[in-house]
Amino acid sequence: MGAVAATTALTLGVLAAPAFADPADGSHRVLAGVGSDTTQDVVNGLSEVIGSPKTIASYNATGSATIQTRDSGCVIDRPDGSSAGIDALRASLANNDGCLDFARSSRGTADTSTSKLTWIPFAKDAVTIAVRSNSALNNNLDLSTAQLNQVFSCQLTSLNGVTLTPLLPQKNSGTRTFFLDKIGVTEAQVGSCVREMQEHNGVELTGVGDIAPYSVAQYLAQTGGVVTDRHGVTVLGKVNGVAPTAKGALNTAFPYSRDVYNVVPTAKLTDATVAATFVGASSKVCTNSGTIQDYGFGAIANCGDTSLKGER
After folding, report:
1. Model-level pTM?
2. CB under 8 Å to 67, separation ≥6 — which residues?
3. What is the pLDDT of residues 4-24, one digit of tens each?
4. CA 142 to chain centre
5. Exposed (0-12), middle (13-18) or buried (19+): which is 296, by Cβ within 10 Å?
6. What is the extent of the structural domain holding 269?
7. 4 domain residue, yes or no
8. Domain-located, residue 174
9. pLDDT in tens, 246-303
10. Of 39, 104, 105, 27, nearest to 70 (Cα)?
């Protein structure tokens, strides 16, 4: 798997655009969005190539405690994760304050009781497991869904002679929600041995028994020099016998693959700027497929689809 990282760096480093963080202080744009750590970098990249003047202001999941999304007012706590971003968007709608226009999400709907929000897919990602390269766990690491269920419910406590320390992203993380669903573990079943970490931050895997879910797209972008490299010495493992990458790119046939989304108020789908930016295969997001793939994500046939709706 170390060879995968090296190949990835060679493949992506040549093609990739630079990474961007929050818009500069005082630089407020038409569409303000918050949420997912997984997609913050690719949406930041898109924000630099869409519109003249630039249309999208995408605020990272971590950083300062608060952000300001408009020229006056609109100082809000920084949402960390998909669910936090979606909830911030819902609060903005409820307050009718115009502070937020979209949320980044690496999960689908969690509540379909209303059609208030629309999840618009724009790329493919996958989630696999990561361990330290200097750990005995990194010995052709290949775990089944059943084994992962046992690891994160703390029933399987050692592998290859190593005591396991499972880690999960924070509870507002879309990756956490997605991964637990895939391995068949509810929040109530998460074991007491599991610790929390900031998602896709391999530097937080400090012990030889640490094992955590990791976005494949984020790993590719980090090891390829496209974004801030947070992978540390982590390497990716297989799940159910399938490798997460193929020829230095995301393996879209990986069993834990997922669409990622920009979530917008359903009532704003007909807004000219929202529609031009996010809606349909000819939208500005979808037609910038090169930028999306530079950040490690895969292309999808349903980019810009507006059929998935829900409350949160």
Report:
1. 0.91
2. 22, 34, 59, 75, 76, 78
3. 443 444 344 434 444 567 887
4. 23
5. buried
6. 9-123+256-310
7. no
8. yes
9. 999 999 999 999 999 999 999 999 999 999 999 999 999 999 999 999 999 999 999 9
10. 27
